[in-house]
Specification:
five-stranded parallel beta sheet; 14 helices; FAD/NAD(P)-binding domain; single chain; 3 domains; cytoplasm; FAD; Enolase-like, domain 1; EC 1.8.1.4
Length: about 475
Amino acid sequence: MSKQFDVVVIGAGPGGYIAAIRAAQLGMSVACIDAWSNAKGGPAPGGTCTNVGCIPSKALLQSSEYYEHAGHHFADHGIEVKGLGLDLDKLISRKDTVVKQNNDGILFLFKKNKVTFFHGTGAFSGQVDGGWSIKVSGPAEEELVAKHVIVATGSSPRALPDLPFDEKQVLSNDGALAIGAVPKRLGVIGAGVIGLELGSVWRRLGSEVTILEAMPTFLPAADEQIAKEALKVLTKQGLKINLGVKISDVKSSAKNVTVKYTDAAGAEQSLVVDKLIVSIGRVPNTQGLNAEGVGLKLDERGFVVVDEDCRTGLPNVWAIGDVVRGPMLAHKAEEEGVAVAERIAGQHGHVNFNTIPSVIYTSPEISWVGQTEQALKTEGRAYKAGTFPFLANGRARALGDTTGMVKVIADAKTDEILGVHIIGPQASELISECVVAMEFRAASEDIARICHAHPSLSEAVKEAALAVDKRSLNF
């Protein structure tokens, strides 16, 4: 006999599990289906983000940063470290523990909010009285009936043509988080968020890292001034970043991987590495949903077609997160999950795509929200900008981390904040103040007039806002 629910969510990544919890909070009966398994075969909800993405990469970034500090920076503080060693197994084990804590936390939240969890793969069986029939394939076969269905199946790493991931020599983000020994030479294809973060992890731990990027410019989505600073700093740290390359051939053997490419000057090059991380984007997970069987429309790239409210073309079927248009960001998926649950309940859920922050967790961190200076120039919009370096910030000096700056861009006439761009310590945390300001359509003057604690890194945001009006006080 089918089990009936008001809402069935397919996928328990950041968008799916949050949508399920919010729908349950709003009084609906909710089920969530997810196929991720841990090493013992048990459920591991949280999707790519929790299992092989955001969470484990941040754990490794933290561990590797401590290692680098101990080897290169503690001496500046009068701390002597002798006989420094690396227990990579323990480092990876700690990462795995952090992941499990998050998996278990989601299962606890499901129980707390009375969300029924099914461990397996969900697929549409067809339309029935009462809504949609959803088949669960996994440890226990189930047939569910849902008034509403939310598709939150996420995405998977894109492989190079004719070169599948073997997770031994040719690695996706999954394999790159579990390398058994520090490779002497590591290649990375793609200088995006994943490539830079994972490249930074293994460089800190001792790898010689070479990054190959097809785009002629570095971080084209970021503000050009910030991107140039990031390229300079990351290169100085030891990452070899090659832009404007065209890869012609990749061959993998039991011992190494050889990448042949043409560099920006048109010269033929060959790179031989022990391991190769491929981070050239992600593809939506829509296979296995039986989308064609029920008429769920996909676009030419495999994304579920939705309107601005995340409605599909099927009645009471919604889709959110990486499987639909928009940035592939966990926090974007979460906000869409909340909005859809509220829309199902008759409320007015809302997601503002103009104030979704982006973060790269390198060291220094890079974050931004809103428009870049180059986009405003292209648009022909009159603006004014102010910058403030962390070099002139007292807290940054005390931390011993003065790299980078804060940049605030405002409308030339109204002074409304149009974008904020940060490279520096704890940029991922500092950007939140700017997101709030932009949500309330604040002017740069508003941030400039707010009292910020001293000494704090946040004062750099205030000073950059002051600099928009050319009245910075500490630089």
